[in-house]
């Protein structure tokens, strides 16, 4: 199994296209395909905040439908799904950009995009267990003892991280550093929390390098465990990135 696992895209379609091209994919059919049969995988949070969320939805829907990619939902995906169901969700924290894009479409196109996203979300597992249980892809990560379970506590963890229930002064949730204590044999690849560089610790890789906050969009190549990235076209917002004490970073950078 050879995968290129891409971090949180958040509507940054141009960077997504650039990264896949850097990884050797071609777009002759309107979506990326690799001449050597590699597949893409996505850690969720396809939409919100960036300029082109709907193009990202459509491309990844086509990839998954054509068995060319693996997708797991993130918390932003979950919220957009609930919006499309007509639930009472707060249109904030980035959702407003996706909703504004969608509302500019005519009714027929709105229904088409809504149908694509609902189908993508409803057919996605909460997390993927791949390569004979040697790889797990989960949006915000997953505890070792949760792997193979799917109850509500697992869903909360996978979508939002190891939250304590407390909040920081800016209103953001306090998240425990679960990866520091992970002892499992499976490699865990996740995103959710923006970091300046890929964080590798205890067989876990956080690959959300904050493209929508002016960082970069990153892919982890599996099983090689090498990194490829492209820079963001958006302004850099330093306070959006989390730092960890004695933070280890990946050194296997491929050109």
TrEMBL record:
Region forming the signal peptide: none
Pfam families named in the record: Metallophos (PF00149)
Native species: Niallia alba
High-level lineage: Bacteria, Bacillati, Bacillota, Bacilli, Bacillales
GO CC annotations, alphabetized: cytoplasm
Name this polypeptide is given: Bis(5'-nucleosyl)-tetraphosphatase PrpE
GO MF term list: phosphatase activity
The Calcineurin-like phosphoesterase domain, residue ranges: 1-195
Domain of life: Bacteria
């Amino acid at each position: 199994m050879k995968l290129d696992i891409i971090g949180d895209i958040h509507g940054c379609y141009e960077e997504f296209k650039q990264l896949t091209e850097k990884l050797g994919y071609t777009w002759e059919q309107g979506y990326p395909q690799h001449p050597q049969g590699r597949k893409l995988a996505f850690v969720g949070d396809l939409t919100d905040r960036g300029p082109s969320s709907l193009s990202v939805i459509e491309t990844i829907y086509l990839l998954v439908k054509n068995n060319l990619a693996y997708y797991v939902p993130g918390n932003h995906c979950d919220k957009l799904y609930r919006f499309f169901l007509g639930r009472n969700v707060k249109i904030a924290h980035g959702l407003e950009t996706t909703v504004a894009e969608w509302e500019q479409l005519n009714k027929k196109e709105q229904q088409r995009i809504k149908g694509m996203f609902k189908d993508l979300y409803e057919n996605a597992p909460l997390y993927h267990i791949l390569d004979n249980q040697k790889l797990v892809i989960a949006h915000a990560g997953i505890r070792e003892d949760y792997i193979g379970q799917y109850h509500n506590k697992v869903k909360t963890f996978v979508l939002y991280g190891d939250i304590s229930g407390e909040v920081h002064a800016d209103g953001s949730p306090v998240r425990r550093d679960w990866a520091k204590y992970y002892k499992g044999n499976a490699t865990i690849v996740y995103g959710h929390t923006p970091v300046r560089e890929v964080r590798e610790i205890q067989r876990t890789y956080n690959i959300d390098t904050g493209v929508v906050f002016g960082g970069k969009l990153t892919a982890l190549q599996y099983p090689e465990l090498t990194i490829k990235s492209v820079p963001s076209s958006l302004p850099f917002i330093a306070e959006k990135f989390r730092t960890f004490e004695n933070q280890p970073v990946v050194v296997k950078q491929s050109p």
